[in-house]
Design brief:
Helix content is 27%, strand content 28%. The chain has two helices and three strands, in the order H-E-H-E-E. The chain has helices at residues 10-24, 40-45; strands at 29-35, 49-55, 62-69.
Length: 78
């Protein structure tokens, strides 16, 4: 995303819409990938957690797998 569009909440809103669509379709979670020089912190602030890292891919950086479980009403204990 161009620097001029960062910090305006667009990415957060797009992710919220995508997650809500996934929940509406019955998904219980999502996973995605990023690189160490990209948006890991952004996704972690949205509740994603790293579950796998490929070091030195590309050389000097890491390829990161992140996941997030969606809470649904049926998941909540009564």
């Amino acid at each position: 995303m161009p620097e001029t569009l960062r910090r305006g909440g667009i990415g957060r809103r797009l992710m919220a819409l995508a997650e809500q669509e996934a929940i509406d379709r019955g998904c219980r979670g999502a996973w995605l990938t990023t690189h160490s020089f990209q948006a890991r912190g952004f996704y972690e602030r949205l509740g994603y957690e790293a579950f796998g890292i490929m070091d030195d891919f590309p050389p000097g950086h890491s390829f990161i797998f992140l996941r997030k479980r969606f809470e649904t009403p049926g998941d909540l204990a009564s």
